[in-house]
Design goal:
The chain has one domain: D-Maltodextrin-Binding Protein, domain 2 (3-Layer(aba) Sandwich), CATH 3.40.190. Helix content is about 30%, strand content about 30%. The chain has 5 helices and 7 strands, in the order βββαβααβαβαβ. The chain has a 5-stranded mixed β-sheet with strand order 5-4-6-3-7, with helices on both faces. The protein is globular and about 40 Å long. The termini are close together.
Length: about 140
């Protein structure tokens, strides 16, 4: 098992997941082959609504308290979930940006991304290989 500690404003956040990768994934017909971590952060933090090629991106999140979501933001930019949730609360309060659609788990994300060429999401790679073959990874994050 992998144990990762994150500290933010004096609070301690502990995420324990099996050692696995988290993939940022798109539809197989999306022309992108790779995204940089900063581009992914911009999409998932509402700073951009477009892929680098100018196409509109439909960002798909996992539920707010998901272990995969927490591991994703820690691996992406060492951001604790408390920070991410506070960030989105500020954006919602200001009325500038609405948070992305949140699904229950990685399985639901795969189903949506596999059927929507504009979708981008993140998943835990513990899913069956047959499901992983229906989507295209564009960034692999190690925990």
């Amino acid at each position: 098992m992998l144990l990762r500690l994150g500290f933010w404003w004096g609070s301690c956040s502990v995420v324990t997941l099996q050692a696995e990768e988290i993939w940022v994934v798109v539809h197989p017909q999306n022309p992108l082959t790779q995204l940089e971590a900063q581009q992914v952060a911009d999409l998932f933090l509402g700073r951009s609504q477009l892929f680098p090629n100018g196409q509109r991106a439909e960002v798909i999140e996992q539920r707010r308290d998901s272990r995969v979501r927490e591991a994703f933001f820690l691996a992406l930019d060492d951001m604790p979930l408390a920070y991410v949730n506070a960030y989105w609360a500020r954006l919602q309060f200001s009325g500038r940006v609405r948070p992305p659609q949140a699904l229950e788990d990685s399985l639901e994300v795969v189903e949506v991304v596999a059927n929507n060429p504009a979708a981008v999401g993140y998943i835990a790679t513990s899913l069956p290989q047959s499901l992983l073959a229906t989507i295209k990874p564009v960034l692999r994050l190690n925990q």
